[in-house]
Amino acid sequence: MPVLFAVSIDWRRQLWPRFCRLFWLKSVGTTLIMALFFAAYFHVLRHPAYPLTPMPLTAVDTWIPFYPPALLIYASLWLYVPLPAALLLGLRELLAFGCWVVGLCITGLLIFYFWPTTLVPHALDRSPYWGFDILHGIDAAANACPSLHVATAAFAFFWLDRVAKHMNTGGAARALNGLWFVAITFSTLATKQHVFLDAAAGFALGTTFAWLSLRRRRLLAWETWRHGRPGIS
Fold first, then answer.
1. Which residue blocks in the chain are alpha helix, DSSP H?
2. Which DSSP letter does residue 139 get?
3. Is there a contact between 155 and 101 (Cβ–Cβ < 8 Å)?
4. Could you report the per-residue pLDDT of 143-152, keeping only the tens digit for each?
5. Measured between alpha carbons, how far is 10 from 219 in angstroms, rounded to an integer?
6. Which pTM does this prediction carry?
7. Which residues of 62-72 are buried (b: 16+ CB within 10 A; e: fewer)?
């Protein structure tokens, strides 16, 4: 029991130094990537190359009802996706994360441009519910498949799991990571922003990019980095 407690304290002591490491590069890089992504996203949204293809519904879409509180989980993606980068120690792995996530977004945008998709119109009026009018203005019903919400969440999940493993966080923290990812995926269906096929395609896209980016990736270990930082204990 004392050993387990010591391990738990050790990974928690890593959090602040990891967040502070390359802080300005992480902050500016994340902001720049998001700004460029949304500029490209809205351009593709307004100027697709071909007519929109409606995405068919499946049984899963009828099983999951509209659940307005899921909007909060849906919005948490913007906190979740930058989290792996915030915890990285090495410059090389940080740049790799950024380049791969940019590649993921570009791939999704190219799919949206050459195979634009949309949701089948439904009679559900979401406007009385808080936040959905803003969501509708930002994230319209087009650019549906693959769900980049799910794709980027899947990519972040695998990277965050790798970081958590290196931090020796234990099973509870890694399970929480998995639960957060599942909740975000569920929220895309519960808010009726996507259908099941969108989410499945997004998961396949995000998982593919995560596997390619992590298959031979070695992260800078805490002990290696701390060796040159005697003030960290």
1. 2-20, 23-46, 59-63, 70-75, 77-80, 83-87, 91-114, 132-138, 148-167, 171-190, 196-214, 222-227
2. S
3. yes
4. 679 999 999 9
5. 18
6. 0.87
7. eebeeeeebbe
